Amino acid sequence: MDWNIRKATLKDVEAITGLRIELLKAVGDVNEGNRAIVFEANRRYFQRKLSNGGFSAWVADIRGTIVAISGLVFFERPPHGENISGLEAYIMNMYTKPEYRGYGLGHSLLEKCIADMAAFFTGWLSSL
Asked: Do residues 92 and 54 lie in contact, with contact meaning Cβ atoms separated by under 8 Å?
């Protein structure tokens, strides 16, 4: 299978949102009664956070169709002894369509998230 791993852009918001809804449905958090409102809330979130850098995502596409996603959220908590900056990152939204599982897409996306996170914190530390 020939796939492409790339950083998500604002053009991917609808696809990212659709796969997030599939993920939430699979874990029982979305049903037909709340699907539309949850979809729209997530679409607005991704639009806003991809624009301002608060969310970073990588996607796997096959022939132009996004079949797997990842997500990385950056946030700041109050500083504490083990994290004096308070800056944290959370890997989330890892999902691969069932028919594309077992090919290493999730692993490849996770590696990109980890590299993204390392670059973010390296950049932040060098700005001090």
From this structure: no
CA 30 – CA 118 distance, rounded (Å) = 32
Query: Quick check: pTM over 0.85?
Result: yes
- Structural domain containing residue 111: 4-126
What is the number of structural domains in the chain?
1
pLDDT tens digits for range 15-25: 999 999 999 99
In tens, the pLDDT along 26-56 reads 999 999 999 999 999 999 999 999 999 889 9
Closest CA to 120 of 7, 4, 1, 3: 7
Q: Is 79 helix (H, G, I), strand (E, B) or coil?
A: coil
- The domain that holds 111 is classified in CATH as 3.40.630.30
- C-alpha to C-alpha distances, 80 to 37, 88, 118, 121, 122, nearest whole angstrom: 37, 12, 20, 17, 19
